[in-house]
Write a structure and sequence with these properties.
159 residues, mainly alpha, 5 helices
Length: 159
């Protein structure tokens, strides 16, 4: 039932039509209830990201990250209400990639070291190191005892 309009004004559209206004409820309804996140999934993701650093740590960080990722994936199968599955998958993927990068870099280092040894003409790594040390010593001797210049040579020949 509308209230009569005595002043010939249009009705206020923002005015409540009901006589009993609802009290303010400060709590918002939760659309998604909070699910606990698996700590191993977070750890797997962090270690997987660290495994991507190009300094041969990928084998260590990646290996541990992959292990934690597989353990957390097993926990997700047992408890479907557990959160963090995406982080565990990210940890697995980045961990495996980090391991592959580290293994590749180690193979490249071994191949280039063997190529350098073969190019030096020595048959063992020890011989190659000894030749390198001898070459460095020869360079040092040339730097510390320079050849006499032409003025000193002419003085010595006159005597």
């Amino acid at each position: 039932m509308e209230t009569p309009n005595h002043n010939n004004q249009p009705p206020n559209p923002y005015q409540s039509q009901s006589q009993d206004p609802q009290p303010y409820n400060p709590q918002q309804p939760q659309l998604h209830p909070h699910r606990p996140t698996c700590g191993l999934a977070i750890t797997s993701m962090v270690l997987g990201i660290l495994a991507l650093a190009p300094c041969y740590t990928g084998i260590i960080f990646g290996g541990i990250g992959v292990i934690f990722g597989h353990i957390s994936m097993g926990k997700f199968k047992k408890d479907p209400n557990l959160g963090g599955r995406g982080m565990a998958i990210a940890g697995l993927v980045t961990g495996y990639i980090g391991i592959l990068i580290s293994v590749f870099l180690i193979i490249v280092a071994i191949v280039t070291t063997n190529s350098a040894i073969n190019a030096s003409g020595s048959s063992t790594f020890r011989e190659a190191i000894e030749q390198s040390i001898k070459a460095q010593q020869d360079k040092q001797e040339n730097i510390t005892s320079p050849e006499p210049d032409s003025a000193e040579q002419s003085i010595q020949t006159e005597n």
